[in-house]
Amino acid sequence: MPEEIQDKLIQDEIKQAYMDYAMSVIVSRAIPDVRDGLKPVHRRILYTMWNMGLKHDKPFVKSARIVGDCFKYHPHGDAAIYDSLVRMVQNFSLRYPLVHGHGNFGGSGGEFSAAQMRYTEAKLNKLSEELLNDIDRDTVDFIPNFDGSLKEPTVLPSRLPNLLINGTSGIAVGMATNIPPHNIREVCDAIIFAIDHPEYNSLDLMKFIKGPDFPTGGIILGESGVKSSYETGRGKLTVRAKAEVEDGKIIITEIPYMVNKSLLIENIAQLVHDKRIEGISDIRDESDRKGMRIVIELKKNFDGELILNQLYKLSSLQTTFGVIMLSLVNSEPKVLNLKDMVKEFIVHRKTVVIRRTKFELDKAEKRAHILLGLKIALANIDPVVQLIKRSESVDVARIGLVERFELTEVQANAILEMRLQRLTSLETRKIQEEYEHLIRLIEELKNILADIGKIFGIIKSELSEIKNEYGDERKTVISNQIEEVVTNEDLINEEDIVVTITTAGYAKQTSLELYRSQGRGGTGIRATTTKEEDVVQELFITSNLSQLLFFTNKGRVHWLKAYEIPEASRYAKGGALVNLLHLDKEEKVSAVLPIKEFDDKHSLIFVTKKGVLKKSLLSEYSNPRKGGINAINLNGNDEVVQVRLTPGYLNFIIGTKNGQAVKFNEEDVRVMGRNATGVRGIKLRNDEVIGMEVALEDGDLLTVTENGYGKRTAMSEYRLIKRGGSGVKNINVTEKNGKVIGIKTVKDYDEIMCVTDKGKIIRTEVNNISKVGRNTQGVILIRLKESDKVASVSRVVKNSN
Fold this sequence. Notes:
There is one protein chain. The protein is an alpha+beta fold and 801 residues long. The protein folds into 5 domains: 31-160, Topoisomerase II, domain 5 (Alpha-Beta Complex), CATH 3.90.199.10; 242-316, 2-Layer Sandwich (Gyrase A, domain 2), CATH 3.30.1360.40; 346-470, Orthogonal Bundle (Topoisomerase, domain 3); 492-596, Neuraminidase (6 Propeller), CATH 2.120.10.90; 598-611 and 632-801, DNA gyrase/topoisomerase IV, subunit A, C-terminal (Neuraminidase), CATH 2.120.10.90. Helices cover 29% and strands 25% of the residues. The chain has 17 helices and 41 strands. Strands 25, 26, 28, 31 and 32 form a 5-stranded mixed β-sheet that branches. Strands 14-9-8-17 form a 4-stranded mixed β-sheet. The protein is elongated. The model is unreliable at 483-487 and 515-530 (pLDDT under 50).
């Protein structure tokens, strides 16, 4: 009969086929199962070796034999199987190797690869047997292999929390996983704590698991990346080599995880050849069986610490480990945080212990049932013997035993198969003792199944045994130092750069040459690529050696050299400020000022939400400190609204939430010390300051309210008064237009952008906004839906030519 042909759109067929392929790669190749931490190929290799009897106390077997037997389960080529086997042997790839290898399985330096499988030998490590124990006790499900001739486990019983202690990495279709390894003692302690404290969270587990523990050691810089990884399942860890400067040499004894030693040495040599690093005369690899040792000889009169810092910055002596804790949960890929991973392992172990206990109970009950029949037979031995002797066949004897002594068929068979030697008094006593033991065991197993606390107790006991038997000291150091590398400014060629900062808190530096490439009549070039709701808030040209001052709403100031701002192309948004500065929770940047020189000719003027003004000499902020310092003393819950750099003779205007404004000359504000509180800038009555702008006489003051209204008024309409007064009415605040959320000094060619609480955005040119008097309500800038409010207003910095 001919096959039925169906019409189908080719795009639908391609889409379905690709999805099938993607899911096959995700589930069957690249992503580990959260329960045993293994990908299918690793699980099949271990199961093959278990079936071959290659336990830790047995002789080694050629790797080629293992690979050949594994083909029964994993038909993807001998190279795929052998490469995976090799990795499970290497103590520089796995924190706790699962396979014990004999022969050449490759070097950590990458100078040589593993020998061919016909030369190497392997067997299971004792540790890996903890993954496989109880697999023959109905603890896990089995499925047919690829051709249906054999059965293979879907997961291993895994008494060992393998996913956490060994980690994994893999690239699937549209997703990747990269889980770092951890110390087995810390992981076991954390899981035991989690069992005892069901309300635990990831931070609770961090009291035990300090951070990843790489097999190659090294130093993890800062705890922020570790915390982010454990709380969200994603994060970035900065990993640095362990190195010391001594006697004109740099001695490297540990390198970051997965860094190739040979390529690292080549990379350093190339940096010296290209003269990107000066002061190095020789590089030697003195590594041996005792451990790693790379010696870098330094030239005379060169600072070893400086060169080491340059190596951290320019070579793979310092790398970033991107954490993506993706694994399969019920055959679905999910990114899990630390709490979720521990929870899934506990659930798996609970299932295994319950299934194992039921298996043992069923086995004990069946054996007790047989022993009970034997006891009945022994108690009636003469009638039993006579009945069997008189029976014409085994079937007749079986029926006779069942009917006369009320036995089951299973018990009758056991009696018929019983040897005569079991009739001795010694054997009879053994049967009785075994039966009594089984009755006690059955009771115990039933009690376990009836009490979840006992099941968890078994899990904790097994974890304690694993911790005590396999636990070791941590190799990787968690440093509290910040990830940034100190760089000698003398080695940096000074140049002008363009610094761009967006309202969403992203910053970047770009070479000024990119903005000078157009001639007269050009149309301008894009300064940055941002999300729709994000706009460029600050764009200024400064030296790459300039100091940038970042002032926060909490009254603190942070320093950052301009060259420390991430370099990026014109189209990139840059790096997040929260990753560059040490900001507390709910702390945000209120102002950024580039400073070329800290002199006494310029001052900083602050305004706070409660109307306080403070003016301090710029030189008061010339001594950078890691973590920042207090820039102004705030009272109560007051916050910094704006900070401006001033030569000392400018006019400023302050705007309030209720529509008042004070225009004053800064000479009215005397200079104070850095820790001073300040003086009154505006008298407030149930009001608060929302902004301070330079009062340009040829500009306008734009005022925007929460209900989407706005207006601009000529700056000349605001008379100059003394600071500290109530000011004049800037806008008529009513129930219709709502409270003021921002003021900006603008000119006709400017653009502004308003963003609402619900994410609605309007970007408009200033000349589209009516210019009206002070005592007006303004016009509609943005029409809002019910319950929505304008959250902020920004002046959009024009693209630079």
